[in-house]
Design goal:
Bound molecules: flavin-adenine dinucleotide
Number of domains: 2
Number of strands: 19
CATH superfamily of the largest domain: FAD/NAD(P)-binding domain
CATH class of the largest domain: Alpha Beta
Shape: globular
Amino acid sequence: MSTADEDFDVVVIGGGPGGSATAGLLAKQGHTVLVLEREKFPRYHVGESLITGALPTLDDLGLRKRMDDMGFTKKYGGTLLWGKNQGTWGFRFTESALYEYSYQVRRADFDALLLGRARELGATVIEEATVKEPVFDGDRVVGVTYTERGSKDVRTVTARYVVDASGQNHLFGRQFDLVRWHEDLRNIATWTYFQGCRHYGGTKAGDIVSENRPSGWFWFIPLADGTTSVGYVTPLEQLKSSGKDMEQLFHEELAKTEEVRWLTEPARRVSGFRSIRDWSYTSERFYGPGWALVGDAAAFVDPLLSTGVTLALRGARALADVIHGSLADAEEEAPLFESYEASYRVFLSSVLEFVRFFYDRTKHKEDYWDKAQQTIDPQRLRPREMDFATMLSGLTGINDIFYQRRAA
Ligand SMILES: Cc1cc2nc3c(=O)[nH]c(=O)nc-3n(C[C@H](O)[C@H](O)[C@H](O)COP(=O)(O)OP(=O)(O)OC[C@H]3O[C@@H](n4cnc5c(N)ncnc54)[C@H](O)[C@@H]3O)c2cc1C
C-alpha cells in the first residue's frame, strides 16, 4: 500500500482469531477488508485448547476439514480433578449432542491458518503493521493510522467500519477508557512444555486435564507435535503472599497434584517458562459510531473453561453479519450493533457466572451440573450432565447471537 488515501469497507486491527475470522467472513461476502497485524505470522500465542463453540465459525470459514488434515489433536472432552469429588470425572462433547470433538492447537499454526484463510477469501493483510490510533470525522471513527516495521511513515487508511480485534492490547478500550476489570478474577498464569508425558487411551487421549489445587489450578493440554502444554493459574494475591516466584510455585504445586503429576512423571521439560497476568475484564461498550470490538478487545474471561477463542470466533461471526447488514443499509446500523452487543453480553455473562461458580472448589460434581442446568436449562428439559457438557462446550445460545437476520 503506497498512499495514505486507501479506503476499505472495513479495517480490522489485529489478525488473531477474532480479527481474521471477522475479516474472512466479510471478504467472503464481497466487502473490501484490510487487516493490519503488528506481528509477522506464525507467531506464538497462549490459548491452545478449543471448545466446540468455536466450530460453527470455523465451518463458515471452510476450515474444519483442513484442521483435520493438518493433524491437530482431536479433543473429545475434558478430564477434571475438581471440587470435592475423589478421583477424576469430566465431560464428553458428544453429551451436548452437536459436535463430537474440537481441537488442541499450537496457536502459531492455528492463527496462521485463520489469517491465511482471510487472505484467500479476499482480505488484504499487512503484517508487521502497528495501528497507532483511530481517525475521526466528528465523533465517528472513519479510519486508523499505522506504521509498518522498519518505516517511520505514519499511514492513514479510511473505512466505513473499524473493528478493534487487538486482543489484550485493547487499543480502543484504552482510547475510549472502556476497560472494566473484574476484581475477583485477578489471576496470574505460568506455563511450559513437556515432551514424553503419559496420555490416556482412546478418545480421552486428547483431553484437556484440569486439576484444582487449594489456591490455583493446572491445565494439561496435549499437542500434536508430542509436546504438552502445562500451566498453573493462581490469584495474584496468592503469589504475592507466598513470597515465591511463579516458577517456584509451579514446581511446588505440580509436585502436590495427583493427576497432572502422574501424567508428567516420565516427561522432560522442553521449554522455558512463560507468564502472563490473567485478569478478566469486560469493555463498557462493544461499539460506537463507526467502530466495534471483538474477541479479547471486547472482553477476556479467565481461561478456566477455555472460552477465549470461542468468544472471539462467535463474536466474529456475529459482527461480520452486523457489519454486512449495516453496509447494505445504513439505517440498520444502530439496531444491528445494539443486538450484537446484547447477544455477545448474554453469552459472556453466562460464561462469567459459570467460571465464578466453578472456581468454588468446595462443591461436588452434581453441584456443578445443577448450576449448569439452572443457567441454561431452568425448565430442566435435559439431564443436568448434558447441560454441564453444553456449558463447557461453549454452545449455549449459539443461535441467539446471530439474531433474526441469519435465520431469515
Ligand atoms: C493464560 C491463558 C490461557 C488461555 N487458554 C485458553 C484456552 O485454552 N482456550 C481458549 O480458547 N482461550 C484461551 N485463552 C484466551 C485466548 O488466548 C484469547 O481469548 C484469544 O487469543 C483471543 O483472540 P483475539 O483474536 O481476540 O486476540 P489475539 O489472539 O490476542 O489477537 C490479537 C492480535 O492483535 C495484534 N495487535 C495488537 N495490537 C495491535 C496493533 N496496535 N496493531 C496491529 N495489530 C495489533 C496482536 O499482535 C495479535 O496478533 C487463554 C488466555 C490466557 C491469558
